Amino acid sequence: GCCSHRSRRPINRGFACGNMSHLADETRFTVNELEALYELFKKLSSSIIDDGSIHKEELQLALLQTPQGENLFLDRVFDLFDEKKNGVIEFDEFVHALNVFHPYAPIDDKIDFAFRLYDLRQTGFIEREEVKQMVIAILMESDVKLPDDILEEIIEKTFADADADKDGKINKEEWKVFVLRHPSLLKNMTLPYLKDVTTVFPSYIFHTEVED
Amino acid sequence: PFLNAFEFISSMSEGFDLSNMFETK
């Protein structure tokens, strides 16, 4: 196990071995895979401020290749990773969130996570205004102009499809029915990399000392 | 053709694409 190496060479500096096996118990990852993820975590968490936590700018740098500027989606992803709401992502939070993105994670967990991403104001509903805000944000990001009436029509049709009780907002049940009919909406919720994180990233294996 | 707003958001938003995280050098 990982603890037997502790006296010889320090591994997972900043994250205790016991915690590693605890994380392995509560997620789909093995201790080996967690060690590989820890290498990734160390890389991300030291890219700007080397303090053992991922700051929003660091996540932004990793996902958008720039630490600057506002990004609605990045903010939501960061908020969902930051379980403790202390403004940084710690390793256990990183692992908990990535666990949902595991190819074998339950689809209900993915559906729920996606719902929370889109529920910008965290009201328990995805509202029209929120969907509109996200579409507009993407149009701005990609410098695409779309006439207002076309935008309204897209929102209108989306809600006609998703908002079964026609109250102008999508609740969790409606969301579930909707995404199961449009499974491609969950594509972003699965990271194939996570299935075999230790072999997909041989450079991480180099630092890994645990054998299966 | 009907463009689903969520389809648009999930396929276009880089901030939601965590795979980028694994491509950090």
Provide structural commentary.
The complex is a heterodimer of chains A (212) and B (25). With 212 residues, chain A is mostly helical. Helices cover 54% and strands 2% of the residues of chain A. Chain A has helices at 17-26, 31-45, 56-64, 72-81, 91-100, 107-118, 128-141, 148-162, 172-181, 197-200, 202-207; strands spanning 126-127, 169-170. In chain A, strands 1-2 form a two-stranded antiparallel ribbon. In chain A, helix 6 crosses helix 9 (172-181) and helix 7 crosses helix 8 (148-162). The radius of gyration of chain A is 20 Å and the shape is globular. Chain A starts with 16 loop residues before the first helix and ends in a 5-residue tail after the last helix. Mean pLDDT of chain A is 89; it is low at 4-12. With 25 residues, chain B is mostly helical. The longest helix of chain B has 8 residues, at 5-12. Chain B starts with a helix and ends in a 13-residue tail after the last helix.
Task: Give a short summary of the structure.
Chain A is mainly α and 212 residues long. Chain A has 11 helices and 2 strands; from the N terminus they run ααααααβααβααα.
Topology:
The complex is a heterodimer of chains A (212) and B (25).
Chain A lengths: L16 H10 L4 H15 L10 H9 L7 H10 L9 H10 L6 H12 L7 E2 H14 L6 H15 L6 E2 L1 H10 L15 H4 L1 H6 L5
Antiparallel strand pairs in A: 1-2
Helix pairs in contact in A: 4-6, 6-9, 7-8
Chain B lengths: L4 H8 L13
